[in-house]
Structures are given as structure tokens and as C-alpha cells.
Design goal:
- With about 210 residues, this protein is α/β, with parallel strands linked by helices.
- It has a single domain, classed as Rossmann fold (3-Layer(aba) Sandwich).
- Helix content is about 35%, strand content about 20%.
- Strands 3-2-1-4-5-7-6 form a seven-stranded mixed beta sheet.
- Helix 2 runs antiparallel to helix 6 and helix 7 crosses helix 8.
- About 40% of the residues are buried.
Length: about 210
């Protein structure tokens, strides 16, 4: 099923293609030991996890030298697929569950990713600043924003920085409440349907939400 990724990202280098191919075997091996992906869902690795993560790559082209914090990375999503696509961008993946972080670091090692590291910590305890924060539906946006807002370098004339959040369902009320509670101007948010880029039915109700810092 790695062909699904190559279909939407034909510009991948031979190394990137090999890294994408390797994801299946390394995740199946580790998932048998530590359940980082639902065992019922492991056969949908490329559709539900890798390609979904890469919706962010369709939304934003991370500049060379930029930095990205992946909050609640779980099994390494969206951080690991993004680190494959953007070798010039530095990715810091964090999760509060240590056994998941162990798996993520092993995957990073097997893939030979020099631009990614994972740490067992909560987002609130990370002491660095980043250009972007990415995440896949870790919690309600109203709660998520305060965890990371002060860790994002404010946008400048050359680069719009902020949160890139993957989530599905009816999000109107959740987003409105998040902006109100966190006193964020509605002009700072944009929404894109993942189905703009990927034709598979699974993406129909899924969005990429960008909140500019």
C-alpha cells in the first residue's frame, strides 16, 4: 500500500521511497510487542496514519531549517512521515506514554532519520520554541492551545507560524469555543478539507486546521 503515498507524492527521492516502504515492516514488528496502533488498524497503516499525517505536507511546505513540535505523537504520527518528507526540517516528537516513545525512537533509528527525535514528556514541559506545532486530535482545541501557544515563535513577514491540527467531524462549535477561550482572533484560523488533496472516502470529514501565532 505504499503506492498510495507515491501516488500523491511522486516527487519523493529513492531514499524517501525506501523509508516509506520500510514503515510497514518496522511498525508491524513493533506493534506486535507494543500496541501503538490498533491491531485491527495496522493493515490500514498507509491510509489511516501515514497519508493522513501527510495532509499536513499538502497544507504547509516546511522551510529548510524550520522546527516542528509533534504533540502526543503516539506511534510517531504525524511527525515521522513528515520528517521523511522534510529532511531539512527538525522534528521533536513528544508523548506522555514512555513505551510509545521507545517505539518511535526505534522507528527513527531504523529509518535513519537524522532530523527527528522523540522524548517521553508532556507538551507543557517542553522548554524550547518552535516554528510549528502539529498534532492529530490529541484533545479538544480549547485545551490544546494553552499547552503550546507560548512555545511557538510569533509569525514574521516571511513565515506564518502556528498550530497545524488534524481532526475530523463537526468542528464549528469546538473551534469557536477554542478561539473565544484563548482570546484568538478568528482571522488567525484557516480550515482545509483533507479531501481537497486525497480522493479516498475515509478523508471526507477530516480537516487540517491552521491557527496562526
Amino acid at each position: 500500500m505504499e503506492e498510495l503515498i507515491f501516488k500523491y507524492f511522486p516527487e519523493l527521492t529513492p531514499l524517501q521511497k525506501e523509508q516509506i516502504k520500510t514503515l510497514a515492516s518496522v511498525y508491524k514488528e513493533w506493534n506486535a510487542k507494543v500496541n501503538v496502533i490498533s491491531r485491527k488498524d495496522i493493515d490500514n497503516l498507509y491510509l489511516h496514519h501515514v497519508l493522513h499525517s501527510l495532509a499536513i505536507a499538502k497544507h504547509t511546505k516546511f522551510p529548510h531549517g524550520s522546527s516542528v513540535l509533534d504533540v502526543g505523537t503516539g506511534g510517531g504520527f504525524p511527525g515521522i512521515p513528515l520528517a521523511i518528507l522534510f529532511p531539512g526540517t527538525n522534528f521533536f516528537l513528544c508523548d506522555s506514554i514512555s513505551k510509545k516513545v521507545k517505539v518511535v525512537n526505534e522507528v527513527i533509528k531504523v529509518l535513519g532519520l537524522k532530523n527527528a527525535e522523540a522524548k517521553h514528556t508532556r507538551a507543557q514541559e517542553v522548554n524550547y520554541e518552535f516554528d510549528f506545532v502539529v498534532s492529530r486530535a490529541v484533545t479538544d482545541l480549547a485545551q490544546f492551545i494553552p499547552w503550546v501557544w507560548n512555545k511557538i515563535i510569533p509569525s514574521g513577514n516571511q513565515l506564518s507560524r502556528g498550530i497545524i491540527y488534524l481532526k475530523g467531524g463537526d468542528l464549528d462549535q469546538e473551534i469557536a469555543q477554542a478561539l473565544k477561550i484563548n482570546n484568538i482572533n478568528s482571522k488567525c484560523i484557516s480550515r482545509s478539507n483533507v479531501s481537497e488533496w486525497f480522493e479516498e472516502e475515509w478523508f471526507l470529514e477530516k480537516e487540517v486546521i491552521f491557527i496562526k501565532r
